[in-house]
Amino acid sequence: MIELGVNIDHVATIRQARRTYEPEPAWAAVEAHIGGADGITVHLREDRRHIQDADVEKLRTLTQIKLNLEMAATDEMVAIACRLKPEMAMLVPEGRHEVTTEGGLDIVAQEEKLKQAVDRLADAGIISSVFIDADLRQVEAAARIGARVCEIHTGPYAHAFHTQGRDAESPAVVAELDKIRLAGDAIRDLGMRFNAGHALNYFNVQPVARLPGIRELHIGHSIVCRAVFVGLREAVREMKRLMREAAALPPQLP
Questions:
Q1: Catalytically annotated residues
Q2: Host domain of residue 225
Q3: What is the CATH number of the domain that holds 85?
Q4: 90: phi then psi, degrees, rounded to nearest 5
Q5: Could you give the CA distance from residue 170 to residue 189 in angstroms, rounded to a whole number?
Q6: DSSP summary character for residue 127
Q7: Total of domains in the chain
Q8: Does the global pTM surpass 0.85?
Q9: Does the residue 252 lie in any domain?
Q10: Per-residue pLDDT for the chain (254 aa), expressed as one digit of tens each?
Q11: What's the rounded Cα separation, in Å, for the pair 84 and 101?
Q12: Quick check: is 254 in a domain?
């Protein structure tokens, strides 16, 4: 059954805008849990622009559902993950100039370094995930380094969906969705778990949730935005309902 991991980074973004103590990300995790989230995701960036070390410590102690720690494949971040032992650690590209993560991890260009990070995480009993573009070369490289999970970057699909007037049947949208589907097929054929995320929202999520074999979606910004008006618990509940409705339909095939 498809699962929802809720990214609460931008609750911390609001807090850091005032450099104060509220809103509290741990409270957001509780509300997301009550709303039906299957996991909580946070990205501990090297520049600490939103989530702080203390937040991850607190979430590791308090979170009763899966904790997914997004992070760069640096010695510092791998050491933090190995100490705190989240259920999953997702390796992502990271640049201080970017507003949010733009594009997937280039595993092909840095296989040895990433394999070392995955091996260290595995030795600590942590499932390793990699955030990659819908590129078969990257999927194959992910299998070579020992990743257990591939999360496909859905940003290009979401961009096409928006620019094409939210028409899920437009050729540009269908083409991007097909790339995700083909990558998902390859991921599963290689024995890894197929997840997806980035820029998914209440309008574009269902075609992705309907793809064959997809296990988990990670969604944050749109849920936090909706929560401003309806509360986080309800925002999570609405997203989970849309995902479950779509996943119950026959798989979206070419």
A1: 43, 70, 198
A2: 3-247
A3: 3.20.20.70
A4: -110, 120
A5: 28
A6: E
A7: 1
A8: yes
A9: no
A10: 899 999 999 999 999 999 999 999 999 999 999 999 999 999 999 999 999 999 999 999 999 999 999 999 999 999 999 999 999 999 999 865 655 556 899 999 999 999 999 999 999 999 999 999 999 999 999 999 999 999 999 999 999 999 999 999 999 999 999 999 999 999 999 999 999 999 999 999 999 999 999 999 999 999 999 999 999 999 999 999 999 999 999 876 66
A11: 23
A12: no
